[in-house]
UniProtKB/TrEMBL annotation:
<dbReference type="Pfam" id="PF02325">
    <property type="entry name" value="CCB3_YggT"/>
</dbReference>
<dbReference type="InterPro" id="IPR003425">
    <property type="entry name" value="CCB3/YggT"/>
</dbReference>
<dbReference type="GO" id="GO:0016020">
    <property type="term" value="C:membrane"/>
</dbReference>
<feature type="transmembrane region" description="Helical">
    <location>
        <begin position="7"/>
        <end position="27"/>
    </location>
</feature>
<keyword id="KW-1133">Transmembrane helix</keyword>
<feature type="transmembrane region" description="Helical">
    <location>
        <begin position="96"/>
        <end position="125"/>
    </location>
</feature>
<feature type="transmembrane region" description="Helical">
    <location>
        <begin position="161"/>
        <end position="184"/>
    </location>
</feature>
<keyword id="KW-0812">Transmembrane</keyword>
<feature type="transmembrane region" description="Helical">
    <location>
        <begin position="64"/>
        <end position="84"/>
    </location>
</feature>
<protein>
    <recommendedName>
        <fullName>YggT family protein</fullName>
    </recommendedName>
</protein>
<keyword id="KW-0472">Membrane</keyword>
<comment type="similarity">
    <text>Belongs to the YggT family.</text>
</comment>
Amino acid sequence: MFGDIARFLLNTVFTLFGAALLLRAWMQVVRMPPYNPVSNAVMQATNWIVLPLRKILPGGKVDWASILAAFIASAVYVTLMVVLAGVDPMLMLPMLLLVAVLTVVKWALNLIIWMTILMALLSWLNPQSPAMPLLYQITAPFLDPLRRILPRLGGIDLSPILLFVIVQVLLMVVTRLAVSMTLFGI
């Protein structure tokens, strides 16, 4: 029971932190204004690890420091999960690094799902919400290509549903790969 609780807590904390790091990198790609309250919160939560890494990896269009920080967080997370499973992480080091990369991909896919769900819910419940422009800007690079393919049916935008299905399939593939490499879930 303690192991299950520890895995749940580790998964929750590291997934939220990894998602914040990836969101920070994505906000830079879509040129999110830094004065936005969400942007500001993400920056404050991640500055402690990203700013020192910026000295090694200077910024550009892609925030490589945030992506490296997400990989570091993922490597720590995977190592802790392996230790909780009772396996010596040094025996699996090359495999752990690959699983850490898969974990970052999984975090990114989960972030896409949650941003899309949040945007869809807010568009139905409160389309005038101040968060809508932010969510639209973040999800537009994923939804706009699908909107060009899918016709609107009676004014209903089905692109979030298609994106959700595509990302869920990708999540299944990534999770299966990681489980097959470590013999336990990440």
